[in-house]
Design brief:
mainly alpha
Length: 403
């Protein structure tokens, strides 16, 4: 397949689905005040509503891997996106915490294939040595989704209200589903996994028994999960409560973080391409990126101000760059098992993100909010615990990885 055909038929349609996935994942950070005012949501409730997306997303990862390898990304992703569209419409009319949690659960389940279906499509159609680069190009769409969830989403909510905005988002997701179904290439039979349900499950068992998988999984789940949990929710309250920014200032800071995220994803693709051409292990690049990510979070925990938004930008830039490890897994397990290998790791990433997002809200609630603001000490304890876990996960990788 030519590069232009790969872009038009694979990267663009699947990237549009991933754009919507990240937009709806991150948009809650902009509507925090609206949910608190209109539905009476507390910090713990907000954490639960937002994390419900991650739970639905993560819980469907193993079935998703089976479906992607057996039926291909085109049909699976188109169907799943329609589930997210329904969830968006339900969120728009939700009047209680329980209703919003259920709607977010559907949205998350429908977006379970947002990136994994894209990665599977790239593995099927791109030259093997260019997989990291095309993976990164798909992820750039997610970066623009984060971007759209900042200033543009803030303006849209201010103009039309959050309920109307979610109706519009549901329509856009349905459009993305249609574009994938109509434009993406049909998979040849030799590209798909064969055998019955037992054979498919054996593939998952093979991945989960592998030492290389378990050496890197805690580190990747820690970095990516923490990044998702904070950038899509808790960065905004931190910037308000600790950084002292007004709503417009918070939206601007989130916009800067989204730009940094896009730059980081592009850089990761270029670094992966460069490493492959020179015979350098992708995991060596991942380790260096992880150390920079840890340093940015440490600066935020310690309250180093030069200004704080600079460290949040580094945090946003490096938080998903460790996803280069997915290309490493593709090469290690092969294209037929790629869907199950990717989703096996993605399950841990998003269950971790769910737990982190909910846990941060629970920790903050140990302190009494004054005028709706939580003290810096509360964030320092919550974020410091995340940093400690990530350091342990990095140490585990160094000790347990196959030599």
């Amino acid at each position: 397949m030519s590069t232009w055909r790969l872009w038009a038929a694979v990267v663009a349609p699947f990237g549009l689905g991933y754009f919507m996935s990240y937009l709806l994942r991150a948009v809650n950070a902009v509507v925090v005040g609206d949910l608190e005012r209109d539905v009476g949501v507390t910090a713990e409730g907000l954490g639960l509503i937002t994390a419900a997306y991650l739970f639905g997303f993560g819980a469907f990862q193993l079935p998703l891997g089976l479906l992607l390898d057996r039926f291909g990304p085109r049909r699976v992703q188109a169907c799943l996106l329609m589930v997210s569209a329904v969830g968006s419409f339900l969120f728009a009319v939700g009047g209680s915490v329980e209703a919003l949690v259920a709607a977010r659960l559907l949205i998350g389940l429908g977006f379970a294939g947002g990136l994994m279906a894209s990665f599977k499509a790239v593995v099927l159609w791109a030259p093997p040595q260019r997989v990291p680069l095309f993976n990164a190009l798909v992820m750039v769409f997610g970066g623009f989704g984060v971007l759209a969830a900042t200033e543009p989403a803030h303006m849209a909510v201010a103009a039309y209200g959050w309920r109307i905005v979610f109706v519009g988002l549901g329509g856009a997701v349905a459009l993305a589903a249609s574009s994938i179904f109509l434009l993406a290439p049909r998979e040849r039979p030799d590209m798909l996994s064969r055998g019955g349900f037992g054979v498919q499950l054996a593939g998952i068992a093979h991945v989960y028994r592998d030492r290389l998988f378990w050496s890197l999984a805690p580190m990747i789940a820690g970095t990516c999960g923490t990044h998702i949990a904070l950038q899509t929710l808790w960065a905004a309250p931190w910037l308000r409560d600790v950084g002292g920014l007004d709503p417009q200032g918070v939206a601007s800071a989130l916009f800067l973080m989204a730009i940094a995220f896009i730059a980081g994803i592009l850089l990761s693709g270029l670094l992966g391409d460069w490493a492959n051409r020179r015979g350098i292990s992708l995991m060596t690049v991942v380790e260096v990126i992880a150390v920079v990510f840890f340093a940015s979070l440490l600066a935020i925990v310690l309250g180093i101000w030069t200004p704080a938004t600079a460290f949040w930008a580094v945090f946003a830039m490096t938080g998903q760059m460790t996803i280069l490890s997915y290309a490493h897994l593709s090469a290690y397990f092969g294209s037929v098992l790629a869907g199950r290998a990717h989703t096996a790791l993605n399950l841990l990433v998003f269950l971790g993100a769910f737990a982190i997002q909910y846990a941060v809200g629970s920790v903050l609630d140990f302190w009494t909010a004054r005028d709706g603001l939580y003290p810096e000490e509360a964030y320092r304890v919550a974020f410091g615990g995340l940093l400690a876990f990530q350091f342990l996960a990095w140490a585990w990788y160094r000790l347990y990885r196959p030599r």
